[in-house]
Each structure stands twice: as structure tokens, then as C-alpha cells.
Design a protein that fits this description.
Layout (H helix, E strand, L loop, with lengths): L6 E6 L7 H14 L3 E5 L2 H7 L2 E4 L26 H13 L4 E6 L1 H13 L4 E5 L15 H22 L1 E7 L6 H10 L3 E3 L7 H13 L5 E6 L7 H11 L4 E6 L11 H19 L5 E6 L2 E6 H6 L6 H9 L3
Parallel strand pairs: 1-2, 1-4, 4-5, 5-10, 6-8, 6-9, 7-8
Antiparallel strand pairs: 2-3, 10-11
Bound molecules: 6-O-phosphono-beta-D-fructofuranose (F6P).
Length: about 325
């Protein structure tokens, strides 16, 4: 017999991502529609351990769909990695009679959820919220579209000054171990080269590309570097290139946490709304311990261990295309 769910908790965890608020709103309103009571956990797993849960009703999540960050706050919890921390979190959830949780976050969040759900009988549903777009089981994660739009806007501005001074810019973007942000930013901003962990391009090959560009009268260039690039960040790569090829005056820009903020794009708001709604409906249909995602416009459910354990490769044809379009 499937379990009865009357009270659920929702929380955001790990790095914040634009669109998380839209997901919280969707969870609260879908749950309320189904006569469930919703509690917001403030501060991710840390808040769960501390018992910081507060009732959320539809009006508490009004006027947040357009806001970046997360009204529920977030954290990267060390204590939840320990069994004792998880036990304390379980006791907090029990104190509020919570029957199930909706976790909005990335791989660290779902790793925690997966371990917790094997130890304690409270089911979780995951909603992918991370700018990195590195989760298997969904075409896009909440926040990715906003982050690449922010990065492209920054690179557009850098182009103006790069062009005016005939300079070579190395622009570093986030993404942790994944090259999705870099690849999409590179394609969208018409970069001369993109360095990502999923495609091996060493310094010598990069210099060859830049030399060919210089021969073709490219007076300036922008290289996008994923922070997880195997040859170092933008600063190291710029220094290594400069040592062997000093044709261009070279500059470095690290976009950093700018990429995490700002009002979510409409794509992120729609994605977050769909996933928050799907998370609650999945719980009510008896689904447990999976991440909801969207693939080819259909909602899919992927067990946590697969969502975090399986690699999500970048499309190598996009890598090839970005190189061809940069000649
Ligand atoms: O996972 C999102 C992300 O922004 C990564 O791209 C980045 O590597 C990391 O978080 C930065 O984490 P923090 O904000 O904790 O320094």
C-alpha cells in the first residue's frame, strides 16, 4: 500500500541558482492544491539539522518568481555528510511530522538525499537546480540558461574593449567539472576558442589556433575557459600562452559569482515551474527517491544514484561546430 503524504518539506541546497524561487513557488502551490501542508526548510541540510522549518502557504511564495537566489537560503553542509548529522535532521523532520521532502539542488544535494533515504524512511524527490547543467536525467538544469545569458552579456562587453585595443582575452566561466557553461557561452558569444574538460586541447594546439587566426587577420580574440579545464584556469592558461606567443596584448577576466545571480530567464522560470509541479505530483503518485527532469519536453524520473553517478557528456558535435564557426 502506498504511503499517505500529508505534510511535505521543501528546501534548496548547494550553490544557489536563478529559478530556485520559481521551483519553491511551484512546489508550495501544487502541494496546497492537493491539500498538503508545506514547510520550508531554511538553510538547506544545515537548516534541517537545526530544525529551522516554517510553514509556507501560497501567499508566502508570491512575488518571488522573478527573483534570483533562494528565499529559503542555502548552504553546503558538512554535518549532513556524517550519520549523526543525518540522524539529527531525521529527528527534526519527525518533530514536524514531515512525510516527504522535495530537495532543490545539484549533485551534492542528491548525494545527501540518496544516503539519507537509505538510512531513514522519509522519501525525497529531487529537482535539479544548478547553473552547471551537469546532472544526468535532464536536458537542462534550473539556472543554466540564466547563467549562460549572464556570461554572454559579459563577453559581449569584453568584445567591445578587446576589439578596440586589439587584445586577446581569456574569460573564465564557472561549471565546476563540467564544460556546459563554457561551451554554450562560447557559441553564443562567438568566441575564438573554448577550453572545456570534455575536449582535450593543450596549450600548443590552442596557440596554433590563435596563430591561424592572427594570420587570417583576427585582430582580437576571446577564449572561453571552463573553470574545470585540465590545463588550469584562465590566469594559468593566459600566462602559458603569453610565454610562447606574444602577438596579442593579453588580458584575463574571471566572471565568477556574477553568473549565479540575477533574475531568472523565462526559460528557467518555466523549467522550474514544471519541475516543482512534477516533483509534488510524482510524490503523490508514489514515486520516491528520484530526480525529476525534462528530456525532449517530457518529464522523466531518474533514480538519485543514476542522476549523480552517470556522466552527462557534452555534445561533441557542438564542440566541432564551435571550432568551425570560429575560423
Ligand atoms: O555548482 C555551482 C557552482 O557555481 C560551480 O559552478 C562552482 O564551481 C561552485 O558552485 C562555486 O561554489 P561556491 O559558491 O561554494 O564557491
Amino acid at each position: 500500500m502506498s504511503r499517505v503524504i500529508k505534510r511535505i518539506a521543501v528546501f534548496t541546497s548547494g550553490g544557489d541558482a536563478p529559478g530556485m524561487n520559481a521551483a519553491v513557488r511551484a512546489v508550495v502551490r501544487t502541494a496546497t492544491y492537493h491539500d498538503l501542508h508545506v514547510y520550508g526548510v531554511y538553510g538547506g541540510y544545515e537548516g534541517m539539522i537545526n530544525g529551522d522549518l516554517r510553514r509556507l502557504e501560497p501567499r508566502n511564495v508570491g512575488n518571488i518568481i522573478h527573483r534570483g537566489g533562494t528565499i529559503l537560503k542555502t548552504a553546503r553542509s558538512q554535518r549532513f555528510r556524517e550519520a549523526a548529522g543525518r540522524q539529527q535532521a531525521y529527528e527534526s523532520l519527525q518533530a514536524f511530522d514531515i512525510d516527504a521532502c522535495v530537495a532543490i539542488g545539484g549533485d551534492g544535494t542528491f548525494t545527501g538525499a540518496s544516503v539519507f533515504s537509505k538510512e531513514h524512511d522519509i522519501p525525497f524527490i529531487g529537482v535539479p537546480g544548478t547553473i552547471d547543467n551537469d546532472l544526468f536525467g535532464t536536458d537542462y538544469t534550473i539556472g543554466f540558461d540564466t547563467a549562460i545569458n549572464t556570461a554572454v552579456e559579459a563577453v559581449d562587453k569584453i568584445r567591445d574593449t578587446a576589439d578596440s585595443h586589439n587584445r586577446l582575452f581569456f574569460v573564465e566561466v564557472m561549471g565546476r567539472h563540467s564544460g556546459y557553461i563554457a561551451l554554450h557561452t562560447g557559441i553564443g558569444s562567438g568566441a575564438g576558442c573554448v577550453l572545456i574538460p570534455e575536449h582535450d586541447m593543450n596549450i600548443n594546439t590552442l596557440i596554433d589556433v590563435l596563430k591561424k587566426g592572427a594570420k587570417r587577420k583576427k585582430l582580437f580574440s576571446v577564449v572561453i575557459v571552463a573553470e574545470g579545464s585540465p590545463y588550469g584556469g584562465a590566469t594559468e592558461i593566459a600566462a602559458a600562452v603569453k610565454e610562447k606567443f606574444d602577438f596579442y596584448d593579453t588580458k584575463v577576466t574571471i566572471i565568477g559569482h556574477l553568473q549565479r545571480g540575477g533574475s531568472p530567464t523565462c526559460l528557467d522560470r518555466v523549467l522550474a515551474s514544471r519541475l516543482g509541479y512534477a516533483a509534488v505530483e510524482s510524490l503523490l503518485n508514489g514515486t520516491e527517491n528520484v530526480m525529476v527532469g525534462i528530456i525532449n519536453d517530457e518529464v522523466v524520473r531518474t533514480p538519485f544514484d543514476e542522476a549523480i553517478g552517470k556522466a552527462k557528456p557534452v555534445n561533441q558535435d557542438l564542440v566541432r561546430m564551435s571550432e568551425i564557426l570560429a575560423i
